[in-house]
Amino acid sequence: MSGDTLALGQVIGDVLDPFTRSVRLSVMYNNRPLLTGCEFKPSATVNKPKIMVGGDDLRIFYTLVMVDPDAPNPSNPTLKEYLHWLVTDIPATTNAKFGREMVCYENPQPMSGIHRLVFVLFQQMGRETVFAPDMRQNFNSRRFALEHHLVPVAASYFNSQREAGCGGRRFN
């Protein structure tokens, strides 16, 4: 999952500033691994994914956010970033179920256009230092990271559109 793929998908720019990936992040829906930029239909994302976090120091904790920067419509994303999931205090070398779910998982259900669903893993400064936002809509990953002293260490994304949709994402 190179930064080039994140830049090509405009995750770098729309959601995050450039960063150096330093921790492994593995996302799986129904035993199917998420490869950056792949597509999952909404029916494949009904249940929360299995998240595996790398690292080597159990004293380090991570925060995972899942956002849709294209909500409600990629042509007019007035709710961007829409927060689909927030898990904090995930110990290194474990998975998200060992963390604290601050905002419960809400599966993506895009109604129009192709949406990017972005997972960002942040390193926390300490345990129990990250708190849930007031609302899901108009979440801002950069501002959230600044407010909670978080450092991005990994990211990935997939594309999704309504079940009957087809076609590809266009970039200018």
Automatic annotation (TrEMBL):
CDD domains: PEBP_euk. It holds the Pfam family PBP. Belongs to the phosphatidylethanolamine-binding protein family. This is Protein FLOWERING LOCUS T. It comes from Canna indica.
